[in-house]
Records
---
Amino acid sequence: MRLLSLDLERYGPFTGRRVDFRADARLHVVLGANEAGKSSALAAVTDLLFGIGTRTAYAFLHEMPQLRIGAEICSADGRTLCFRRRKGNRNTLVDADDAPLPETVLAPFLGGLTREVFCRAFGLDANSLREGAREMLLAEGELGASLFAAASGLRGYSDLQKSLEAESDRIYGPRKRQDRSFYQAFDRYEDARKAIRDTGLRAGDWRDLNDSIATAGKALDAIKAERMRIAAEQARLTRLRRVGPLLAEIDGLAARDDAEPGLVEVPDAWVDRLGEACAALRARQADAARIDAAADAARAAFAAVAVDAGLVGRAEEILEGFRGIDRFDKNGVDLPRIQGEADQFDAELARLAVRVGLPDVEALTRRQPSDAVRARVETLIRDGQEDAAAIARLERDLAAARTEHEGLLRDVAEGGTPVDPTPFRETLRPLAAIRGVIAERDALDATVRRAEQVLRGQAARLSPPVADVAALAAAPLPTVETVARFRALIDGKERERVLAVERRDAAGRPIATLSDLSALRAERDAAFAPLREALSEGVRRAPGDIAAYERLAQAADRLADDLAADAARVAEHAADRLRLDAELAEAEAADAILREIEAEVAEGHAAWLDLWRPAGIAPSTPAEMTAWLGEAETLIEGKGDLDERHIDRALRTERIEAARAPLLDLAERMGLTDLAGLDVGLILGRLEERVAAIASRWEATREANARIGAAAIGIARSTTALADAKAKQAAWRNAWDDAVRAIGLDGAAGTEMATSALVAWQAVPNALAERENRRARVAGIRRDMEAYHAAVTPLIAALAPDLAHIQPSAAIRSLQTRLQEAQASETRRRELAKRRDEAEREAGAAMRARDDALGHLAGLLADTVPDLGADAQDAVEALHGRLVARRALRAEALARRVELARAADGVPEDALRADLAAIDADAIEARLRSLAMEDENLDQRGKTAFAERDRSERRREALEGGTGAELALAQKKAAEAELHASARQWAVLKLASLMLGTAIARQRTGQQDPLLTRAGAIMAALTGGGFSGLAQDYDEADKALIVARRAGGETVHVQGLSEGTRDQLYLALRLAYLEDYAGKSEPAPFIGDDLFSTFDDARTGHGLEALAAIGGTVQPILFTHHRHVAELAQARLGSAVDIIPL
């Protein structure tokens, strides 16, 4: 199908615009500047053929319902169609009279194309071209993938296939890994299945649980009451220990306060004012003494400073001379240096005159060549050197080309006739898949051996161990329910036996009495008395005394515990001692019951052993055998999995051996013998090595033939180029003779001599200018130095005749230093006069302040202590110290009473003193320690009882709810659902990957030969002969790769091509596919959008010629906003191109 015209009636920026396409043109170039509507026209072609979308970006000038496009198209067999496309929901295809047309009228012209296929396969821009080339690079030049990308226009398929494979591998694989979701769900399924076996309600546990909970509750209540009593006693003793030191401190402070009864009673404020008055008097006295001394020092300092008035009077003249010192000194340093530079430039000019062959500097100045002469000589030097280098290079290239040509001819003759490896490779390719089967078999071998070892280890670790897993799988094993029944029976009888033993022991144990406890405590206290005295006096006691006390304390605690536990029995014993006989009778009955229960336990154990005898197992306890059954079932399941792996290994071994005969037949055809006894994998490896060697020889011969032709062409080209270079060198020699005479050389001088002379002449103007500059600077410096010397000499003679014999600059520096010292002395004297006057004023003020402070203190004492005068300053300060100390004692006593009120917990002070009088501090500590030990013992017993009750209650809740097995069942069903979902997702991903790979392989096998040949011809045209075509190669994995063949015969893989050449390769494949498509179906026009924006002019020209080359079968339309592209197309193609301004 071809576009004959395009009517942009109302679309984008266009109104009534018609574009005609010449029918005889092989390439149409639509040229439009930026914002000229090029993108709108490009989109109009797609909307014309496939309909204007519901939402479009090209309704910015005309309303959507008004959009309309028209065209006249022609099919390959000459049929034409005129139609229009309007914006709407139905009947959008109309004829010239706006009569509706069915969409099927376009079917013969589109050939089944859809919008997406048209945009991808028949549309291409610079960005898509670059991305397609990059996709070939990512596929590493794989032949099928490259053809698939160029034909479909799709990108990202390599990454898509890799991501599909990676995602499916994260779900499932032949080998189990913990990061695969299928095996994670499978592990959860197995865990849930084991949990169902292990959980459930056990008969007989209910009654025992309730009894243990009730017993633990009673014990906790008794312990709680006893701990409350201990806590109350501990609080009372702790309070007494806390307030004792406070009461003692309060009594001590009261005694110290009473020690000075004659001290006057005054308010606290008066004490503070007395202290402030004393401090103020001391401060004023110290200030007066300090300020008076400072005034004396200021007067002495003022008298010690003298000033030189003569220097100060002529300060401006001295400063003016000082400001010229730096310039005078710098001139003195610069003068010899600049004079030396002037001399150096004189010498340099003399040397330059000698270098260019002139007698002196004056001649050198007169004979300077012009810039034009120097430039012409420099150009001839470069041309001569380039010609000489080119001739030498061409001679070397010619010799190397002849040597290479002769060597290649010799190698081809010696190598013999090569063999085409393609038949062998095609026969071997399907058989090579057996390598994967061999790898799977080897992996299964390792897995089976590892699984057998693990299975034997698991069987040996069981208790009791299992010697033969297969025999265990065939033996009859008790069910979980049977084991649970025996466990309940044996555990119940065991609990009955323990209770019977406890009843017997309780019946025969002597009953504790209060008198026994009192006697034991008295004995304990008697043993502690000498220990307490020893501790208070710091005397060590014998270890035996301490051990005896500890034994008595422990015995008293045990007896107290027994008394508390047997409270009810103690009451009965106190009421009636005659019940002792009844207790003895009860003990005998308990013995009889115990013997009966032990007989039943022995009978249950015998039945338990008989239950396991058919399986040959010596069982442990029922609780242990319950877990053993679960582990044994896992062991049996592992044995089943191992058997399945044995079967898989056998099947793969059969497949491997089935490939032996075809491999040996191929080996015989390739000339390989003595392979029958080898492993199939080794046979396959030997065959692949043989095919690789044949292919290498075949490719080497083809490459050598191509290189022979290229070498012959190179020899001819080098011979012609060498003759041209020598002719060019002869013309250069004629121009050289005339040019070098202008710089003082004859025609025989070489380029090196001319270069040296030019360098000398280039240095002459600068040397002359620099010499004149230095001479002018020397004269100026000498003039400035003489003027400065005349100005400063009279000043030095008048003010410092002792400095007249030194340099003027040094004398002015010394005079400036003396001026600074005189000015500093004058400033210092003025400052000292001010300080002296200020110090005298401050001294008078300080004396007045001291007298005021003394009068204030005398007035304060006259009102309260008239007997004490202000002049007795030491006695006044002593009085103030005693008053402050008494006030501190009373404040501390008040703080202790406040602290006592907080520590007494509301108990009156009298009650506290009475309790402290009744008990000493050591007894309090001993009693608190004893109570803490009792409380700790009760706490441990309470924790044990509480833990037992909590454990039993949680067990009862679990049995009541029965959620263990239900939860495990729910988890099992959830795991099953997850397994189904994972399997389905894995199948979908795997099928998608296989379908994509199959499409690529089908593209490779179905079209590679003719398509690759045509693409190679287009590639040669696109590169201007830089590459002669395309070829097929194979990598180490025998994967077909696309390679480009240079004009010299060598091949380059896709990775070795430059970015621009890869773009050309992708374009060649696309154009070849379009031609192939045109031979089978009705082709649409090929639309290129600024296709060559990244190409240089040479590549753009070749690309335009390549587009025109397919113009006989496919209509190529190139949109561009670059005018030089249109001009290049006109220059290259002439009348074959149709330039359409937009």
Note: The radius of gyration is 60 Å.
---
Amino acid sequence: MAIVRLTGRRLAGAWGRGRQLSTKYSELTVGIPKETYELERRVAGTPATVALLKKAGFKDVVIETGAGLGASYGDSDYVAKGASIGSSGDAFGADVVVKVRPPSEAEVAALKGNGQTLISFAYPAINKALIEALASKKQTLFAMDCIPRTLSRGQTYDALSSQANIAGYRSVVEASNEFGRFFAGQMTAAGKVAPAKVLVLGGGVAGLAAIQAAKNMGAIVRGFDVRAAAAEQIEAMGASFLRVDFEEEGSGAGGYAKEMSAEWHAAAREMLTKQCAEVDVVISTALIPGRKAPILVTKEMVGVMGAGSVTVDLAAEAGGNVETTVADRKIVTENGVTCLGYTDLPSRLARTSSDLYSNNATKFLLSIGPFTTKIKDEFEIDYDDDCVRPMLVLDKGELAWPPPPPAPPAAKKDVEGAAAAAAAETVEKTAVPLSPFDEYLRSSLRASAVAATFLGLGSGIDPPILATFALSTIVGYYTVFDVVPALHSPLMAVTNAISGMTALGGLTLVGGGAIPATTAELFGAGATALSAVNIVGGFLVTKKMLDLFKRPDDPDEHPELYAIPVVGTLGAYGAAGLAGAGDLSSVVSLMSGICCIGGIAGLSSQKTARLGNVLGQSGVAIGLGATLGALQPDFATSLQIAGLLGLGGAAGYGIASRVGPTELPQTVAAFHSLVGIAAAATAVGEYAHVVSDAKAMDTATAASLYLATWIGGITATGSVVAFGKLNGNLASAPLALPGRDYLNVGMGAASVGAMGVFLSNPSPATGFAALTAATGLSGALGLHMTASIGGADMPVVITVLNSYSGWALCAEGFMLDSPLLTIVGALIGSSGAILTHIMCEAMNRDIFNVILGGYGTTAKAPTASAGGYQGEHAEIDVDATAALLKEASSVIIVPGYGLAVAKAQYAVAEIAKMLNDSGVKTRFAIHPVAGRMPGQLNVLLAEAGVPYDVVFEMEEINDDFPDTDLALVIGANDTANSAAVEDPDSIIAGMPVIEVWKAKQSIFMKRTMGSGYAGADNPVFYKPNNAMLLGDAKKTCDALRNKIASGE
């Protein structure tokens, strides 16, 4: 039967033909026969792929006896993975036969046909007789050489590339074996050895592999390709790109090269002749699909090469690029040039080439049906599958190749209409750029609002304290911008500790002797004790975190010596007071404020961070001392104060001592709640203390008192809800009550109304009622707004609460006319606000939306889209992962909160050290909001001993992924989720993420395939260059570490 008659029975239709009837895997047997082609040692199935097929549910996998011996796989290796060993007839009689080489006449006869499926190299353009023979048996044939190489999914099944990569590498090995010198130049006592000069013709997969291998051996490498686009790739591999002095583009369809004109060939011959006279080794890789290989190196060019030179022709099987090539032979020309025409280069690395080819073929087989039908265990040919259809050559004997072209683009009218609609939608969504006049007008109006605010404040607040507030806010603003992201967790811990200066307000109310007697004194005692918890616990947590960043070679530190200036300052202050030398309390308070500023500024770098913590402690100690000196309590009251500070400090020490890096976020949230309660308690107590003195209650004092109560209430309840979400006591999903925004607006309006009543100088009963309303409304508002924010935004919520605690302290400073509290409060409030801004930028969140509890938005539900959320995912085991890590030249590890929960950081640190010690460049990529608190993962890695100079922030390392061999994601999901970039309907749309999918290979280590903390599905799981390593992170990391350490 002639091929021409077959074309008359071409399969009707194009991409819309539909699907065949499906067949369950459990009804199918896969056969792997022994390759019989001369010199062929590869095998189409390995024990690893047998295990994949058995796991997928295939009835049986039949391996011909001895099929894997050439690749060093014995029959027992296959049996151990569940295969059956049979005869050649058994393998060829299977429902699906997988081969490497196109079948010979004898092998065609052995096939049973009648719809049987064959997956193999076939080269239908040049093997017409083979296609006719298979068609006569009503065979179904998929050609592994017909993969659509420009399709990203197709790269997983691209056997041409995987085998060409091996051939390119092996060609250099063969050339070096025949070449009589080193490839690398050397300077020795015996003389100088010049490096070899290698010319590689062809910039495809094989050519680039040859360039890389030759460069790694130290040769001077030049590359040439007819496609101009190949120049960048060749030069990126470190070779010089040669250009022909003739303008003609050589790129053809499908990513291949096209045949060039006679004029171009003439110019190329002139250039190559000169090059052949200069180089020592020529490796040619130029092939054109379905055509005889072009002659690039003529006999005359070989004739000008020096004696001892070598040519390796990877196109020998297709006629050769070198005119002197003889297929499967090594010849030596008259002028001493060795010409290699081996056609079995992949077979000379049989095990590796078999592993790669069998992976290509097996994954392709497993995709026929499930990738588009989403039914995992059914084989079904889908004509609309843009990867399967081009590889289908025969369908039950009917010719299906070449495939019809894809559907034509939409009509021009439709395109224009769609473009117009898209443009209109874009105009609606995109704000019109402001004119210069409008920009200046908005800026001037903002400045006017600021001026009006200061004028309003100035009417009731003394100018000195107002100046203190303004300058402290500016200092806090600029201080935080200098803090490196790795230190954001210690920064929040130290500001939390400093915000314990609410104790100063509480101390002003303490009295009554050893036991408080009045309502005001009770509130003051409570505020003092709670603040002490914050001070001691916060500074201890900060110290523990910063100590984790210390390196073995860091110089010794002696922070205890800073007790000298602290004790000296307080001693001099006390002595001056006793001697009647004047009141130094304002000067000492100023010193306290400066130390607190220095404490936060010290967190800007690793070198000064621990000093910053000491300065913060010094500032708080001096502030407490200055306050006690100004109050001059009697002996009994001093005992009460000592008891309150001691009790609170002991509680803080006990809590902080038990906290590990994993519990840091919820601990900080809990400490924030104490600050809020202390601020509110101090404000209510102060009102109880001064309510009978109308002169002490001017408008500014009353407003500050009310705001301290209101902000303290929001901080307290909001922090409790944040603690519950972070600790797992509350669901992470946002609360979406009906009329959520109206509830918030209503409570806000009621709070303003209660403030108006309070400022009207009412009776004590009415004033207490207004403060009670403020406490209740602010508490409810903090609870509801925080509960309305999703768990994924909790890192931002913590920074917001951090800022709130500062503003509460600042309001307390205005209330008590205390410059020190105003300095510290404005410093913490502004620094927390800027940190919130930084976090919102990192998560692409609107800062006002977060602060106002998601105002104006509706909570997005997790969505599954057609963009890759469903489909077949690849799984990998520990052994294969360890092999990939050891074989890589560059690895980036992306840790997430799952690593923290599993406490796997120690094993990961050892893995990174072993890889770096063995020459694998291994680094860590940290997302700004990885974990449940900014900087938490940096602290975890530091705890495990990972040097901070191999830990990089997302924006520092994201551009490196395309050049990275392997990205290993451990316990992270949302921060490495491509849906943020690819799916505008995703709950995390627009959030900057770590782009692990751009690495050559990515591996996600997770317990399950479930979504992350934000509830968003991750399409990276289903990308062709990704594999899932499922299991417990701790056990898996330990196993991975042990495997790498064993050296197996």
Note: Residues 599 and 613 are 6 Å apart (CA to CA).
---
Amino acid sequence: MRPVRLELNGFAGFRAPTVVDFTDTDYFALVGPTGSGKSTLLDALTFALYGSAYRWGRSNAIAYALAPTSNRCTVSLTFDIGPQRYQVAREVRRTGQQIQQKSVSLVQFTDPTATEAEADGPQPEVLAGEIKELNPAIEKLLGLSFDDFCQCVVLPQGDFARFLTANASARQQILLKLLGAAQYEGIGKRAGAQAEQAANEVEILNDQLNRHADATPQAEATAQARVEALERLAATVDQLVPQITTAHTRAHEADTRTDTLRDETALLTSIRTPDGTEELQRQAAQAHAAARQARDAADTAAQTLSDATKEAQAGPQRTDLTLARDRYAERTALAERRDGVIADAERAQGEVTQHEERLKASKDAVDGARRVAEETREHRDHARQTHEKLQHRLQLLAAVRTPDGVTDLTSRAAAHADDVEAAAGQLAVARDRHEQAARALTAAGDGSRLTDAHQTLDQLIDVIGALTDATGELDACTETTSRTAEAVAGAQARLNAATSALEQAQALAGAAQLRPRLQIGHDCPVCEQNVTTLPPPLSDPALDTAQQARAAAAKEHRDLLARHEDAQTKAADQQRTVDQLTTRRSLLDTRLATLLPGRPAGSDRDCTADRAHLDELTAARDQLTADERQTRDALQTAHTAHDSATSAVATLQREVDRARNALHSTLGTVAALDPPAADTDDPSADWAGLEVWARTQTATAERDLDAAAAETTEAEKAHSDATMAREEADRAQTDAQTALTAAVGNAATADLEKTNLIGRLSELDTLLHQAPPEEELPTLFEECARLEAAVKTATHDAGATLETAKAAAAEQKQWQDRITKARSVLTTSRDTVAALNPPSLDTDDLAAAWAALTGWASRSAGDRQTATARAESDAQSAHAEADQLLERLETLLRDNDLDPHNLGDAPGRAAQAPRIVAVAAERARGQVETIQRSRADAASIQERIETARTRQQVAAELARLMRSNKFPQWLANSALDTLVAGASRSLRQLSGDRFDLSHQKGEFYVIDHFDADSARSVRTLSGGETFQASLALALALSDQLAGLGGATKLESIFLDEGFGTLDADSLQTVADTLETLAQGERMVGVITHVTALAEQIPVQFHVQRDTRTSTVTRQGT
């Protein structure tokens, strides 16, 4: 991926539209003061691709994209991947308190040179148009996630500097973090949690297993015998209950018949004729005649009212007369005001005409004042421009100054060349001496092999000691396992004996309970044989003692079995430890045999003799190493002196280059002023000539500036006077316009009042055309009053007769209600005995009807008293038979251990017996099923215990392997080997074949090929050398991450690293390193505010910030 064009508007500090064009750029620098916005450009590039930036801390943070005072920002990045060109864009908006992405796009251009779509050209292919589509599309296109992109393209140099000098433990954590290997720590924690969970599960399952200890075959047989006895009882009960039910039914029917006869006799004797029945009939007839007379009088008065009302409606109406009188009065008043209103409207229209003429005159005055003001403004602007150009000319000329130290550059260059030649001679002598010592050391072999042999021997001795201890512990564990196995076998035998004793006691207890219930001539409930002779009673079988003995034996067996299982687990763990140590000893022995060929190995190895042999080899090599180190130090001193002299010459040459560059830059700045030509072979003379020319030009420009300042002041005053005159004319026009508006409003009001008055007069004339003449209104009012009085009198008479009719009707209704109530009493009395077939009654004559009903009731009561005596005798016989059968049923229940009280106290309680027996039988069957399920559950729980133990052992082993000194350490070491190999190749290229990178015992070393391949710790490197090594590590991990993610070819890299703390030599090393990196296939971008580094980079993007926004300017090619 190679950036081509970055466009941003409203992004962070870049509030104004900004374009950064990377076309034809392979090596560039973003330069500018601290806080100008250099790193923000990298944030914008990353945000365009992934919607966030590395410095923002989260992959979904967008709030930092929007400038604090902006409500919208856009970012667009055009980039190439191979021969294809793409463009990605994002828009962020502020809505209320929310900051959200509103629109995104990712397109592929058909033209690989295009930077935007042309309206009449081929349109790009849209790869993503939704927010949720864009990031997956970018990751698929680049093959990198957001975090990987920040590691591969925007390199975190600070992390790798720490990584380079960190200790082994910290380096492992950093490496695992950069590789994303934190998941293995999570695996270890989850495995440990699973192991603990499995152990808890085993403990819980053991507790569950103990709850099923009483589920034995003997208990199941006893429960099954109980089921069979209850089933036989159910058959007997099913035969007896219908007989009891039949007897109860006959008794209930006799009781019911007796109660019915008694109730009927009571009803018949309660019927009596009410008092006052004949007087009630007479009063009701008188009230009916009075009500009929009152209704006739009310009808006559109502007809009179109707005739008077019709006559009033046909005569004059008071409402119409009153309305006509009011309209005549209104017309008279309006006619009196008409002339005055018309005069006011004409006067207001005249005032409007006067104000219009005044407004036209003020507008003409404003136009003239504006023309004068515009002419004076143009003259003032021209004077200002002339003045500003002269000021800018003086500023450019003032910047022409000869840099310090330019005059003596040649003499200093000659002196430094002599120093370099002398240092080169001393370096050659030191190099020869060191090469001799290095060859001797090389002939003695690699010292790391002896170090490895020492370490391997130490590890082998430790493993042998640990193996001896582990073997002893294994023997002890094996002996413990054997002892616990014997104890478990003894406990099992005791448990079996206790179980047999319990079963025998349970059988005797059952027989002892059944024997007292045997009866001669009945079947035995066990063998179903007829009993002819009763056996003697059995003694107490001591069932409780047998149960306690069996429970104690079961507990002892469980405890010993648990100890045996713990012993087996410890023995298995110890055996694994012995196996691991044996394997470790074999591996170390093999490795030591490789490092010390010719020494005895295996069981013949003598570690003490090997230690002595190693000490002799080490002492000899230490002497050679000391000789080589002494000559290397001398060589290093000579190198340092030579490098210092060479650096001084290079520094002086850079001063010459800077003087020439500064001269060309200054000439470019004043190129518009036609400066004299420059001879770059003599910078001092060129600077002197340029400075003389600048002083001459400055004097001329100062004279011209004074004249321009006077002209500008005069133009400013003229424009100010014209502006004041224009403002005065504007105020006059405004006053005229305000007066005209007021006059127009007054005229409109007067005209509206005139129109309304004339219209109302016309409307009144139309309305009064059909009205009676004004002089006839008094006579019509008198006729209306007469008709209204007649209606009032008729209304009063009709109301009085109507009230009299209502009172008579109410009295009639009261007597009629009493007659109705008396008939209701008669009907109710007959209805109470309706089931006894009473005679039919004529309710029009209440007295006769009551006499017929009471006579019939007296005769019927005597017949029912005789029938009641016969029914009572039948009920007593039926109750006696039912009680005998019920007593037999209760005896059967008690004989089978069922409580007869459960039948209840209800008369039909015998019907509950089948249910009680069925419930008991079902409970007995449920007990059998419970015992069977309990035995099955115990077997299932035992299998689950074995499964959980296996799972616990596997999870515990995985957790042990996932500890930091196991698998993660192996992973980090393997990754470090690969990383160092790749970094070494990059470091050799960056250092000009001088350095290789290696690691040993958790420390990094560089192999200096310019110093007889000596190994130096990275902690001794200079600032520039440290930068080379850490950059090589960064590039190596970048390649690894890109390879793991299947990324496209990475054609760009950006270094946001602080270089301000480096000295001049280290800074030059960094500059040379970056230049070497840029000569490869990648675009290299550097962010720095160090001028000395930026001047050596061919393309510079200068970032500046003012009070409003940041800006970017490109310099160089």
Note: The mean pLDDT is 79.
